[in-house]
Amino acid sequence: MESRVQVKELLLPQGEKAESISNFVIVGANGSGKSHLGAWLEKHQNQKHPVLRISAQRALEIPERVILTNEERSWNMILSGSEKLQRDYDGTLQRGNKWRYDKFTTTLVNDFNSVLSAMFARANNENQEYVKLCRDCESRGEDKPSVPKMLFDSFRDIWDSVFPHRSVEFKDAQVKALYTRQDDASSTSYLGSGMSDGERVTIYLIGQCLVAPSGSMIIIDEPEIHLHKLIMHRLWDAVEKHCTDKTFVYITHDLEFASSRRDATKIWVKSYHGEAVWDLSILSPNDTIPDGLYLEVLGSRKPVLFVEGAQDSYDVQLYSYIYPDYSVIPCGSCKHVIAMTTAFNKPQVAEIHNNKVHGIIDRDYLSQEEQDSLNNTGVFILPVAEVENLFLLEGVVRCVSRTLRRNENEDFQKVKTYVFEEFGKELEKQVLDIWKRELKHKISVYEPIGQSKESLVEGLHSFIDTLDVQRIYEDHLNKVTEIVELDSYDQLLSIYNRKTLPSRISPKLGLGKDEYPKFVLRLLRKGEGAEIISAMRDSCPSLE
Fold it and tell me: Are strands 24-27 and 247-252 parallel, antiparallel or unpaired?
């Protein structure tokens, strides 16, 4: 028997309904009325299941000691602002205490204690149920059941996917953080009140989603607040994985996040006219433009940067830091980057989205002629051979070395020597790759001349005769040899294509196998990589 996919429904104003096999994303520019729509949705959904709206205006103070109460009262406080649920004559849940009766989008919600209290209470109830079950089995002479997955188990799973080197302890009505240093394995413990904004909001969001009853609809206004893009994506991926029995409705102006919810139904909020009247569009996949890009064009007020790779590629991860004012969109191959940038910069299309649109691709043996031609279309060329080489920049290597409290001069010299040695081992192959790339380009731009078979054949032979293959090879060999002889590290990075190099230099900096690029990314995510970003930015094109 085939299992049927459960279709979720979202009731919209004017009697419309949106359907999804996953979740929903409400997306639109700032000031378009998204938060007001969220408040309307909270009130008008099916009252058989709880509808929890997590406000964008949320206080993030973790109490030093949680005031505990039972799970029902804690959940009621989260849901409505009162310990006991009350309903109007039509069955609508009263939420006046939570939203100060008429400030549905501006109230600063201060319910962190209730969230933590509900978590402690749920964990206590789960433990008691398991103990009772064990005693019942014991009394019947049966084997005790395995320990089931409990709330704090799910919390740790989600937390570890976001902050793998920090842990959270819930004990004695307190929340504590534990941070383990990479260099000496020492640990530091501190109260939750000393956590960063990102850590505190993560606890707050995970907690609400886990304590919400099965079947709940959870509306999250601005899921990106206090979270870096990479953390944000991992967080909500993990939450959705652990809460498949709940429906999530995200309200956001972050188009990159919207596009990352790949199976979600997107609802574009164009404008709000008051009196529960919105101009809405339920978006469906476009035949020619991928869903994420379609969203970018329709709603983003940020300039757009098309890049190579996938959502988790180095391209997206690094360019998001280097160009923080841009919405970075992965397109896969360099051909797709060029195609999308060119398409969106066509006058008739640019008039629709009115955004600044650029692309950036790896250098990858492109000739100067090709680079100049692409720059005219809004596509910029990375000065190094490929994005992985940004990890190898002298400024980046030195910064990492200083962070690790090592001798940066010695470390950089080790890295430089190693890179030159590795290049020397495959010099001929690298020259051949450059040579083949230029020949392919020259052939691709050849325009046949003539109207007859004979003239076309003659023209082709003439083109081949003028194509001095040997000279082109020798020119490239001489250029590469000169770079090596001059010991020019920067120039070497501009031509050396070897994606594994950043991982392979790890031992030169005292790091474990393949650890170096991971360490750089961790520094960036923790907000400790300003010098690294600056060094990379200095070597990247200015998108002006």
Answer: parallel
